[in-house]
Amino acid sequence: MNPPSTIAVRENEPWRANLRGNQTALAGARDETWWTGKSPVACPGLTAEGTLTALPLPNLATCTRREVQDYFDSGWTLTETLFAGLKGEEAFFRPPYHGLRHPMVFYFCHPPVFYTNKLRVAGLISAPINPYFEKLFEVGVDEMRWDDMSKNEMLWPSVDEVRAYRAAVYTTVSEVIATHPGLAEGHALITLNDPLWALFMGFEHERIHLETSAVLIHELPLDYVQRPAAWPALYPAAPHDASTALRPRPGTDYPVLALRDVAATRITLGKPADWPSYGWDNEYGSRSVRVEAFRASTQLISNGAFHEFVAAGGYREERFWSPTGWAWRSYRNIKWPTFWVPDGPAGLHRYKLRTLFEVIDMPWNWPAEVNGHEAYAYCQWKSEQDGTTYRLPSENEHHALRDPVHRVTDDLALQCDGLAFRQRGINLNLAYGSSQPVDAGHITSAGFHDVFGNVWQWSADDFNPLPGSEVHPLYDDFSSPCYDGQHQMMLGGAWVSTGEEAGPWARFHFRPHFFQHAGFRLVEAAHDGGAIHLNSDDAAHQVYEDRQMVNDYMLLHYGSPADQMPHAFGPQAATEFPLRCAGCSMVRQSLVLALSVRWKLVALSAGQVSSWHVVITK
What we know:
The protein is an alpha+beta fold. The chain has helices spanning 65-83, 90-93, 104-121, 131-136, 159-179, 197-219, 303-311, 323-332, 372-386, 395-401, 418-423, 547-558, 561-564, 577-581, 585-594; strands at residues 259-262, 265-269, 287-291, 294-297, 340-342, 351-354, 359-361, 390-391, 456-462, 488-491, 508-510, 518-519, 523-524, 597-602, 611-616.
């Protein structure tokens, strides 16, 4: 199903226990008491229009204390501006319609908790601020795990309590910036081995969650959202005459699809270790490969082009979908893209567009925002229509479309705030508060629009490590759990991508059923572009079982209550659930016997299947 446009009220829902009823200030525009750092009018990045944009990445070889504090303030206030778009107390505590993420209150407190915990690990601060919060809000969820939503029926701290914690963290982080000798004038390059790396890790982690929280707010019913005054405005679309045509017209309402040849070339992936900006572990290492010649669409697939697939019944035809893509489509009963809003009877195929805070007339020339399953299905449908073979670009091919980055001065993320990106025709760093037309952006020297910016672009590759990359000890599970053949790569950044994610080295990833501000372009070729797949038989799209899930199921069925729910604040009544569901004494005795079974997981080697050895103990 698509996100609900209005609220369905069920008074007996357990999450409603979180509603204190004393948060009337959340029902409208925020006053000065809302801001725990700088208010938008005092924040770096304020534009002449009175809205915020994001600052350039700090140069870790030259950044001053003032520049670091400004960058911290920019991310912090952008987060609080985004959350000022939540209307009413319920918006903070109501679980998302799909049940795959925590309520928004978690994401309001998770970034400051991350600052505290990582600064402690790095030795930049010596003590916790609130140990309870720093456990409760420490870890998010990777959807499709059996225990993802155990926290959705608990009693969360109030919004006021979270804001008090945010204020304390803001003061702590600002103190580190003001006093740490590693930021003194003339300091050395801050590298991966420097304790201050944790500080910049916190900055970029917050900016990732700015982006993913924007997606979750995008999915909320309109009754729960309001446009904050300081949030960037939508791209100024041309006036739309809804009566001009029953359906969008190629060449008039959206550009006609055009492909362009790309000659064979050699590319090198990987961020140099001495590059003077923060980077995530998966960006380092190096891979040099030859890219065979191919053809690619000069623009991203627009809403209008995707409408052809929708109107032709593409969501009804199983043959266009991968097996798990079709299972997802059937389960959700999806019939059009998630952020499209029907404007008339279903068979009429007229739609409006849900943006972050409002519904607008459909801009047919904006990129279609879809998940990986939908992008794959469109490629299959279009291949059948045109009698050729289209697919998603590989990471290698995406690099072949780019302008080269050889010097630090080529790295626009280190040079440009959102306004400077806008002036270059690149929709990154909150240049706008939405997508822009697929033919309005910067054209690379190879002849392609929006290689960077506008929306993330789904890639054919599974998320994978570059040769020579290493897990960073400050965040050892950022990338490595996702090298599993189940997470699909996205490249290029979106309009809401800021900081490091707006840079040329970013390698983003999500499961293909997850929604991000992401779209795609087509590639036509007789080869696979060197795309890396960690597993076969559609394993890249399997989300229901892996080694970790098997381990979790064993814990659920046979673990002790203390192991199943180690946190005092968690739902203790949920432990030993399978035992309590055992219907007859024989079944229960079998489960009790199983408690004496010692299971040992033997990892044969990276990327291979694990085996289970059972030893019965008396």
